[in-house]
Amino acid sequence: METHDAAALRLLLRACEEGDPGRVRQILDDEDARLCADSADHQGNCPLHVAAAAGQEATLRVLLARGATLEARSKLGWTPLMEAVRRGRLSCLSTLLEHGASANATNRYGVTALALAAGEGSVGVVRALLERGAGDPGTSGMARDTETLGAVVRILLANVTDGDGATPLMIAAVAGDLSLTRILLDRGARPDDRDPVNGWTALMQAAFHGQTAVVRLLVARGATVGLRTKTGLAAFELSTLSGDSDPELVRFLGSVMMTRVEKCGPTGSSEVQERPSCGSCLHSCPLAGSNSHDGVRDIELQTFWIHLIPSFRCGRDSVQKSAEGRTL
Known about the structure:
By secondary structure, the protein is mainly alpha-helical. 48% of the residues lie in helices and 3% in strands. The chain is built from 17 helices and two strands. A two-stranded antiparallel ribbon has the order 1-2. It starts with a helix and ends in a 7-residue tail after the last helix.
């Protein structure tokens, strides 16, 4: 049978979830209940965790006024700020940050609040965390130095990945979240970073999933169109594999491949130049991976149409089998 303390705690957490500040005060003021603002359930969740997850800002402020611990952790290492981030509760996140909550805390698995926000596609939450210096253990308060913040986030985005090595930029690209993709690029995300499993970039993921607007943004921000997966497919080929490929996307990637020359070095970096105005190299095939002299790949648009037409008419299944089975 429940003790009075356990029953009172259940009532307190329910009041926090439902956003009843008056009831919260009443329970905390009840001496018989023997509860405080940091009382936790069997999973280590405190009233502040529950209020933050439920988006109950008024209740959150009551708990903070009663001395609730900002960095209280559940048994899985979640802080109230992480709960607010995971559920996209921007007002509660702002309140917690205003009171000094850390934007750099990690849970037991090493996942940061910024990685959570990127995975959820929460643009406002990502922006709030970045403005508070998320990713830089030495930064407290607002980080106004754009160069410093950009360097911090570049380090973060290079190391925060999921189990398959996907970065926040790749996740945003798959989801087609244009605003989030732009924010991550503004903060230093590298569009040509590859996942270690199959060698996919954010551009490849966006192309395969038909996210035309994201593809255009990534190309405009310097993504290398000629990079290939470990099985030899570029973004163009990947854009043709879907059963309902977007013709605009396919034409765009084909035209970019025609007008650019990309020289890829051994480290995966690339030097992009405008294509010379000559009619050479009309014979190369995108799946053959042929290179012109000096190691420079020069693939014409005509080649892509030759490859694309049969893939739409009768060869789609064979082309699909040549792609990796892995997408986000």
